[in-house]
Please model this.
Amino acid sequence: MKVTVVGTGYVGLVTGACLADVGMRVTCVDTDHDKITNLKKGILPIYEPGLKDIVDRNFKSGRLNFSTSLKDAISESKVAFIAVGTPPGEDGSADLKYVLSVASEIGMYSNGYLVSVTKSTVPVGTASKVKNAINGELQRRKVEFSIDVASNPEFLKEGAAIDDFMKPDRIVCGVDSEQAKSILNTLFKPFILNGHPLLFMDIPSAEMTKYAANAMLATKISFINDIANLCELTGADVNNVRKGIGSDVRIGNSFIYPGIGYGGSCFPKDVKALVKSSAALGHKLRILEAVEDVNNNQKTILIKKIIKKFGEDLKGKHFAFWGLSFKPETDDMREAPSIVMVDELTKRGATVCAYDPEAIHEAKKIIGEKITYSKDAYSALKNADALLLLTEWREFRSPDWKKVKDELKSPILFDGRNIYESSELSSNGFIYAGIGVK
Ligand code: NAD
Model:
């Protein structure tokens, strides 16, 4: 089957590469010329474990191609995925300009029936806007064929995107025609050999499923962060509480790890967009408003601990960061708590030297020269008044504590992800502060 994927970012590139890997003929389209030129040379725009091998293999075999022209790519495609960004608009609602501009182009350039599948995260009702944009162009061209629209929200996690795409827990497809259902059934069959479901439903329900899933996960994170903060006031230890509640199968262990708040390109913007679209219908999503509020507060929780230790005025203080990306195994810096930490510390006169295994080039685009960057974990520590662990990359899990202590000016560690044991750190001579732990 011939497939076009429009938007070659985290979602589009993974989708295109994985579809090609199971035998589809895929062209990934992007308006970013540099991205496409680099992809043709084997240079990937993002760090995602395992992705480069799949891209290289399928590009060599000719099953995967890259283009800046949707017009050239779409000819004879049975499916066109829309996988462009849906960033928050000024009021927090999802900005659909990229999605609708691609929809119009699909209407302008397709040369026969196909299914236009929206993979971008979009509010309920977007499919009808996509349909109108496509049909407007088809009518203008006076063509004989029609185009179906469908919704196929993406649930991949950055850092584990290939596994998530290849062996998904479920695939959700919103359709309103039997032909679209049959084509998507054929397309996705290779990915449900693990027995997990391919769920067909109406389009609005599919669109809502994505927001509801992200809202639920964000809620779990804010819930445990709120409990962690309460643990500190009561003398309980959230690590014990987490294990205590997580072993209840009705609750489960995932997404109840306290930390410095969720970031990334999805949870913050999707929670905001859902709150906004709900408010537009006169319905206040009170839980999600609180989720957002707790998260914003959590991003500065280490600052409160730092101030408690060093005072409000941090002039002359120097801090080392381990980790910048919003989570491990990705170079994605969008909405990363580290950005807030840099702002808060530098505003108070402190300086920062940061190390991250993959995200420094992305961090420089956002944070710039406000801080210095180190090429390795230990040299980032030199002369620092404290170490802040902000992203739980594997290489930080078991450091050489003697070396850490030798490099730091004072052996103080703020653990924003609770990856260390307070007792182990104390026995190594460190002053340790985690989130909600004793
Ligand atoms: P991204 O910003 O990494 O990539 C979007 C790409 O679309 C960019 O390369 C941009 O140049 C391209 N683009 C914009 N307009 C275009 C046009 N008219 N024609 C062709 N290309 C165009 O975005 P992403 O992280 O891949 O997210 C895409 C969508 O998927 C968003 O709606 C997001 O919410 C959703 N999503 C993201 C993730 C994730 O983990 N990143 C997971 C699930 C869903």
Remarks:
- The chain is about 45% helix and 15% strand.
- The two ends are 57 Å apart (CA to CA).
